[in-house]
Known about the structure:
alpha+beta; Isoleucyl-tRNA Synthetase, Domain 1; MetRS_core; Met-tRNA-synth_bsu_C; 20 helices
Amino acid sequence: xxxxxFPTDRPAVVTCGLPYANGxxxxxxxxxxxxxxxxxxxxxRLGQRTAFVSGSDMxxxxxxxxxxxxxxxxxxxxxxxxxxxxxxxPKFNVDFDNYGHTHDETNTEITQQLVRDLDxxxxxxxxxxxxxxxxxxxxxxxxxxxxxxxPYCGAHARGDECDEGCQRHLExxxxxxxxxTITGNPAEYRERTHKFFAVSEFADYLSDFLDRxxxxxxxxxxxxxxxxxxxxxxxxxxxxxxxxxxxGGEATESPREGGxxxxxxxxxxxxxxDAPIEYISSTKQYSERVGADAFDWEAAWKEGVSDEHxxxxxxxxxxxxxxxxxxxxFWPAMLEATDHAEPRAVMASGFVTLDGKGFSTSxxxxxxADEYLDEGFHPDPLRYYLATxxxxxxxxxxxxxxxxxxxxxxxxxTVGNFLYRSLLFAHRNYEDGPDADAPSDEVxxxxxxxxxxxxxxxxxxxxxxxxxxxxxxxRYGNEYIQRNEPWKLVDEEPAEAEQVIYDCVAxxxxxxxxxxxxxPEKSERLWDQLGEPGSxxxxxxxxxxxxxxxxxxxxxELFEQVEDERVEDLNEKLEARVAESESDDGDxxxxxxxxxxxxxxxxxxxxxxxxxxxxxxxxxxxxxxQELDIRVGRIEEAEGIEGADDLVKLTxxxxxxxxxxxxxxxxxxxxxxxxxxxxxxxxxxxxxELFGVESNxxxxxxxxxxxLLTTYxxxxxxxxxx
Length: 722
């Protein structure tokens, strides 16, 4: 691992958290996989040698429980879901170099060898613990076979995780008031001997590791609290049949009288031991398929294999934030203890909510992956929406209205509009494409700037900024063609007109290359329209700097408008489906299956709070709040926007710079009185184009009357709100 800017000369591995082979995928799941695919493709555009790998997580108690309910073996149950995932991901252009699963021979061998290495190095030991036992069914209850109360926060907990409260990992025996999920009867605790990994010995290493770790800030900051509180050693075995067997064969004796010894052959490894090892196994399978010369999995994962880079390759994990602890505590400790390369970065995404509420699979309150495709939508607009709608570690609220707005404004109105108008003009006026020696200095400099923004986004681990680099370039293209008006120059200044259109085609080619990670299928179609040789998937950012060379075909519009009537229809379908599901289950409380808040308790008081919305139960972390750049501003100028009933164009002084912001204030404020007004501005709000005016920020106001937020004292423009 290095900390040099990408691209480096080391092999890189990008992984996504393994989907649990236990149910359908929805767009909340897709956010992580799309994010990983976007980042992997972006690395390749920079020229980084990259393997993008993942696999299905096959083991654990939920699989065993659900398989039993369906009357099939856990292996068949999990393999059926694995095959569905392997078919679904390509439909969304998520293109893994290898997609395996944790139950295959490769992962079994590597997992057992790594555990043997831990044992031989003295990092494993035996310990008697209290394990939940179902006296009615006469069996031990690992993980999700037991539920009860979290000992740390008092919330409902399922086996190995406080899933409704503090989200802390729970060891066997920690759940209070245990109940068997099999019979519903109270469970009891009995002593059993299990294997433990001495994670506490790695506290100093892990603290230093977090100092080095790149990626999102939540992945660095959240684990520090656990280290400061004192790391607990980790039980790595479970009393069940489904999983990878604990290596060894001799029965171990209980160290204390009254305990019950567990033969190692009666134990399987905890699912979180073999799950991350699948990253290594999947990379190995990829190397075996393409050859070590194309990609050497050992050089990427093992220390001391490469003479040139003995620390290993560049490993980037893309995960959901609910599994940060596993990837920043347990996993790096295992890697360090067995001479494997540590991760360079962990990118932990926020959740996806639906109209402000958590997804709920049991209430059917979700937009399913197959449902999105069945509605006839192309996968690339959803990829763009999930990748660019907020920072990667922030929660994203999905609604069909918001989806339609982003598609119509940015993909159709900005990117698609520039591409179609410029390429159509070029096709109609120049048979084989406009001819010029090279892009003009102005356009070449702007393309260079976009490439630099793209590279900076990769090194900042920002998939949103990757999208911004493209939309900003397209926005510039619209401004450039409008400013130069080639349709007026064709007759009077034909050479100048041809240079302008050549510049526009050069911008289109750069967009094709830089947009490939977010919209791979649409970018390939654009590449074909440009008549460029080969595939855009093989092009690096250097191709974005090269002028167009192909014969232009007749262009077609890349993106389709989402009409209001379509949004209404989609909302009606979703509402009817959720209502039917809630009616079927008697409107009983529901636990979110996606580790998200699913509380629908009505906290309003009808007598006292009829006009006040209830406070949200959805909380954001301090890290999420720090992502908001809220500043004091002063309105310098204000003018109404022609054709817009409510919108005002504001020029706002933010200290370091002056910005144009569009706000819906015309009907609620005297526009002439707005200049010199102090306001509070969300400065890192994504840009939007409204009635032809680019809005670069958001002015904050309270209530339906748009009561402008301001300061009590004389804070200067640019002062940050904390």
